[in-house]
Amino acid sequence: MKIDWEPLRPILEEGEKFILTSHVRPDADALGSELGLAAILEDAGKSVAIVNPSAAPGHLDFLDADGVVHKLGETIDANRVEDADVHIVIDTSAWTQLGDLGTILRRTSAKKVVIDHHVSSDDIGAVEFKDVSAEASGVLVVELADALGFELPKRAAVPLFAAIATDTGWFRFPSTKPSTYETIARLVALGARPEYVYRMLYERKSVGRLRLAGRVLGRIEFAADGRIAYTWVTQADFKDLGAQQADTEDLVNECLTLDGTEAAFIAIEQENGSIKVSLRSRTGLNVAAVAEKFGGGGHRQAAGTVLPGPVDAAVKKALAALLEAVDQKA
């Protein structure tokens, strides 16, 4: 369903100071969409700050070469965030995904806007511009620019390309449409180089990341006659192998490469003892509904939530919920 962007026009025209925010552990779609929208607004003469509840993973550093993305409490304080006319939340509309920035959003008098493509949603008191059929939030930023007459700056090309390429699985997910390639062609014409973006995203792995992949994939277990595959990561794994939290990215997708597997999840122990669970599906199974049972959410085929530890207890909970969903679908 296409978005009517006209209600956003007066908000952008009247606002002068903007804060752009996305979810904890921002991925390339979140970060790229923020940077793309920031470039558009800055070219329109607006003051813009990008402030996230957690730092971006190291492999996305090339998107923010100038270091303009802030982490709340480190390079920018709450007072600066509250002192805004408009606060735009991109690539999420869930309180649990906003971390400490959620506290600021609850009390700020700034106008709140959500730009998102996820199914799961909370009422955060914002004007929502949401299209759950959109393949990436980066696509929505391009649509916004086109609908409201903004030019796409050249410096937005790489971040938006990365946003769309990653959230479509490099154009292999079912969400990819003919229009996706048209948008990508425009970004390439603006200066995005696919070979450069791919290399920066996927060909700078550390030894720790490769060793972690070997250990985690080596412990994959199965359920429902192989229809479900799952694995887990502990803090001890990170320490033993010299790996980082970001090194778990895409490991859950490897589980879906197994013949006969319909759904998968990975449980990752966080530093605070909580367990991040990422769920994936390559059938009609709605893993967002599974995640929502635990206060999480996402897309039908890619979702996540956070469970209390320890790891083995979280794995049992996630597996039971996924087994129930698989049984209902059968």
UniProtKB/TrEMBL annotation:
- The UniProt record lists the keyword Hydrolase: yes
Name the InterPro entries on file.
Answer: DDH_dom, DHH_sf, DHHA1_dom, Oligoribo/pAp-PDE_c-di-AMP_PDE
Hydrolase found in the keyword field: yes
**DDH domain ranges (all copies):** 18-157
Question: What region holds the DHHA1 domain?
Answer: 231-328
The protein's UniProt keywords, in alphabetical order, are: Hydrolase
GO MF annotations in UniProt? hydrolase activity; nucleic acid binding
UniProt cross-references to Pfam families, sorted A to Z: DHH (PF01368), DHHA1 (PF02272)
EC identifiers of the protein: 3.1.-.-
* Enzyme kind, highest EC tier: hydrolase
Can you tell which superkingdom this protein's organism belongs to? Bacteria
Name of the molecule in the record: NanoRNase/pAp phosphatase
